[in-house]
Design a protein that fits this description.
The complex is a heterodimer of chains A (298) and B (112).
Chain A lengths: L1 E6 L7 H10 L6 E5 L8 H4 L2 E15 L9 H5 L5 E4 L8 E4 L9 H5 L5 E15 L5 E7 L7 H12 L7 E5 L6 H7 L4 E6 L3 H16 L4 E8 L5 H9 L3 E6 L2 H7 L5 H4 L3 H20 L4
Parallel strand pairs in A: 1-8, 1-9, 2-7, 2-8, 9-10, 10-11
Antiparallel strand pairs in A: 3-6, 4-5, 6-7
Chain B lengths: L1 E6 L17 E6 L4 E6 L9 H11 L4 E4 L4 H9 L3 E4 L8 H9 L4 E2 L1
Parallel strand pairs in B: 1-4, 4-5
Antiparallel strand pairs in B: 1-2, 2-3, 5-6
The chains are: A alpha/beta (298), B alpha/beta (112).
Chain lengths: 298, 112
């Protein structure tokens, strides 16, 4: 099973355009497309899946039993995220302990460390997962972070765990990543076999691509670049690809017809069948690079 | 009574830092003897929850009132829970430490 993550650095470069089209040229029943951009999922708009299963994602928030708490402050000192504050005062009536659920990363250290066993954990809903398939039979899953919930990574973690466990019949899993290079992207590309970096040939695309490349090098993952909106900007992305020894696998030209077709909810390969061969070709190249990187024989 | 004012530096001539949670320093002024003490804000580089940590710093230093321009919601919650009074800097203030202390003593500042 090959896990391909589609990431970018800069937002709006075409990750979902690439992920949805790549998924559509691969064998039905053997391919799963997962939209990991839980803060702004949009791949479903192109795939139109019928969801057949959903699941809630929760995170464990500490709850303090004030009848047991002696306000020693150990929990507050241990919390790396300042999510728990102990107000030690000389008069016992002014003592207090505050929990900030939005800062909590649900690591559990506070309840673990509490000598009075005054801290328990209560699950709080932070998002929702859905899976199903399109009318054509493409298997699809996504996650949605609740409005106001601050941390996307646990929802992505739960999504990957939910769809990947016990689903070894897939040959290829395509993970559509959020933009950027922070926790949520790391959570998405962690465990992937290959990262497709989608960029545009502008100073903005280049700047964020550099950061994304640094991340995938830190994680020691093989990668390839797709240049979207080719023809604008300059050729600095090509130079960077050469320097970093990351091949450019495809160029999609800047064309009004493409933008206009995508804006109606069509995928690139369904609107322009001429791209089908190109996407099959990318998949071949990914397999070659992956095999070379892992020295796996054919 | 001890008041705290977020500042950009740690000398008496320093200017006021308008953000409470991510100020570089705090000047603690003991109003009884006019003693000034500067403490470094250990929360300034916290990725998350700087306001909570800064509020905790006020509690640990026995501060009774804080004066600043902007308080985040978490900082305000910690300060309120600890009964530390929150005062806002007047608009068009001179940005000078001693003037603010004087304004506070003259009860010219508005309590939140």
């Amino acid at each position: 099973m090959l896990h391909i993550a589609v990431a970018s650095g800069k937002g709006g470069t075409g990750k979902t355009t690439i992920a949805t089209s790549l998924a559509q040229v691969l064998p039905i029943g053997k391919t799963l497309l997962v939209d990991c951009d839980v803060e702004a999922p949009n791949a479903h708009l192109f795939i139109n899946p019928i969801f057949t299963a959903t699941k809630e994602v929760t995170k464990n928030i500490p709850v303090v039993d004030k009848s047991l708490c002696d306000y020693c402050g150990l929990c507050s000192d241990a919390c790396k995220f300042n999510a728990i504050s102990v107000i030690k005062q000389s008069s016992s009536s002014d003592q207090n302990i505050l929990v900030f659920p939005n800062l909590c990363h649900a690591c559990g250290v506070c309840s673990y460390i509490c000598p009075q066993n005054a801290i328990s954990e209560k699950p709080e809903k932070i998002g929702k997962l859905s899976k199903g398939s399109s009318v054509d039979g493409l298997d699809f899953a996504n996650g949605e972070l609740d409005i106001g919930a601050p941390d996307a990574a646990p929802v992505i973690h739960a999504l990957k765990k939910w769809v990947l466990q016990g689903n070894s019949h897939y040959d290829t899993i395509i993970l559509d990543s959020p933009p950027g290079a922070s926790c949520s992207v790391v959570e998405t590309i962690r465990g992937a076999d290959f990262v497709l970096l989608v960029t545009e040939p502008t100073p903005f695309g280049l700047h964020d691509l550099r950061i994304a490349i640094k991340l995938i090098k830190d994680l020691n993952l093989p990668a390839g670049i797709i240049v979207n909106r080719d023809g604008i900007g300059n050729n600095d992305v090509d130079k960077l690809g050469k320097e970093e020894e990351i091949p450019i696998l495809l160029r999609i030209p800047m064309e009004r017809e493409i933008a206009s077709a995508l804006s109606t909810g069509k995928t690139l390969v369904s609107a322009f069948p001429k791209f089908q061969a190109a996407f099959k070709n990318i998949f071949q190249k990914i397999n070659e690079i992956y095999r070379k990187a892992n020295k796996v024989g054919k | 009574m001890k008041i705290a004012i977020p500042t950009t530096g740690n000398t008496p001539q320093t200017t006021i830092d308008t953000r409470f949670g991510r100020a570089s320093w705090y000047c603690l002024v003991d109003l009884e003897n006019k003693q000034k003490e500067f403490i470094k804000n250990s929360a300034i580089s916290a990725a998350h929850g700087a306001g909570v940590q800064a509020g905790q710093l006020m509690i640990d230093n026995g501060v009774n009132a804080v004066i600043s321009d902007k308080f985040g919601p978490n900082a305000a919650e910690v300060l309120r829970a600890a009964n530390i009074k929150i005062y806002l800097l007047p608009t068009g203030n001179s940005n000078q430490l001693d003037d603010i202390v004087q304004d506070f003593q003259d009860q010219k500042l508005i309590q939140q």
